[in-house]
Amino acid sequence: METTLEKKILDREASDRLSFITFIIPEFARSYKMNKQDAYLYLKKYGGLDYLYEHWWALHTDNPFWAVRDLYEVCYKNGGLR
User: Fold this and answer.
1) Range list of H helices, 3-63
2) Of 12, 20, 36, 48, which is the most exposed, with the fewest CB atoms less than 10 Å away?
3) How many CA atoms lie within 13 A of 32 on its CB side?
4) 46 CB contacts (<8 Å, ≥6 apart)?
């Protein structure tokens, strides 16, 4: 059984991850002149979302420009052409 402290830490991490993801997808969309929905679908199709969920902790410590660029590189390597 999780202790209250462990639950608060997990809740905080989930909240931080969600905050970063909801920040970086519109940044990706703006950077590549897409609407937010198209950016989300593009990231989902070409592995960017998987990468984002897995590496959000490292990405959120970087400049948003580089985080967006990393997402682009992942998608490009997985067949994204934009």
Assistant:
1) 4-31, 36-45, 48-59
2) 12
3) 24
4) 74, 75, 76, 78, 79, 80
Rounded distance between C-alpha atoms, residue 37 and residue 13, angstroms: 25
The position carrying tokens 């902790």 is: 57
Q: Enumerate residues 6+ apart whose C-beta is below 8 A from 22.
A: none
Contact yes or no for 32/24 (Cβ under 8 A): no
Do the Cβ atoms of 49 and 43 come closer than 8 Å? yes
Residue 2 has pLDDT above 70, yes or no: no
Angle subtended by helix axes 36-45 and 4-31, to nearest 10: 110
Q: Which helix (H) or strand (E) holds 72?
A: helix 64-77
To which residue do tokens 């979302």 refer? 49
Give the separation between CA 64 and CA 66, rounded to whole angstroms. 5
Q: How confident is the model at residue 43, as a pLDDT?
A: 97
